[in-house]
Write a structure and sequence with these properties.
Layout (H helix, E strand, L loop, with lengths): L1 H13 L3 H6 L1 H19 L2 H13 L1 H6 L5 H18 L6 H17 L2 H19 L6 H23 L3 H9 E4 L2 E4 L3 H10 L6 H5 L1
Antiparallel strand pairs: 1-2
């Protein structure tokens, strides 16, 4: 993605090092602050957006994470970008910003899957409210824009996750204890968890 291209440019100047990886966070920090400013401006005023971005840049969690190379800070920036894109698309009334929202969600899934879970409640609420009280467009146009955002998000995230779907399904449905593999619907799996429940539960919770 764009972050990788920025990192390639940085390594060309500073070489391949931990410093270059951490320097990449400048790109995500700029994205985070700009998106927070946009959100504050759309919800209140330009002064509120600038104040929100300034306070966020000094928040200890953001300040510390921006100096370390990790997925959490990049995911935070993409969540902010998703909220900004959601406001820009005017409750899915505009096609271009709706596609941008899908692109942001898809990129977030590539960085860290929890990005989707952070944005999902907001997106679901916005979609439901838009269909219940549509903006100045038809409900058909809203459905098309919602579908467009979802399709772009799935297409972008599928670049990494599509080939891993069988492994994910297996990890969610098959439990392995030593050399024994048990499907979650099998009787042996249920008996195993019932037998080991007292060992992993405090007496108080077990009594409750």
């Amino acid at each position: 993605g764009a972050g990788y291209l920025v990192w390639v440019a940085l390594t060309g100047v500073f070489g391949q090092s931990i410093f270059s990886l951490r320097l990449l966070n400048i790109f995500y920090l700029a994205l985070l602050l700009v998106c927070v400013k946009v959100v504050g401006q759309r919800l209140h005023s330009a002064r509120a957006g600038l104040l929100a971005a300034a306070l966020l840049s000094l928040y200890p969690g953001i300040f510390g994470a921006s100096r370390q190379f990790g997925a959490d800070f990049r995911a935070t920036a993409l969540v902010a970008a998703g909220v900004a894109a959601l406001l820009w698309c005017d409750r899915f009334g505009r096609s271009g910003p709706s596609a941008l929202l899908g692109l942001t969600v898809g990129l977030g899934m590539l960085v860290r899957p929890l990005t989707l879970f952070s944005l999902a409640p907001v997106l679901a609420l916005a979609a439901a409210w838009s269909l219940y009280r549509p903006p100045a467009v038809s409900r058909l146009r809203l459905l098309l824009n919602i579908s467009l955002a979802a399709a772009v998000a799935v297409w972008v995230s599928a670049l990494w996750w599509w080939g891993r779907v069988p492994a994910i399904v297996e990890a969610l449905t098959v439990h392995q204890v030593g050399e024994v593999r048990m499907h979650w619907m099998e009787q042996s799996s249920l008996v195993y968890y019932l037998q080991h429940l007292p060992h992993g539960t405090t007496p108080f919770l077990l009594g409750v």
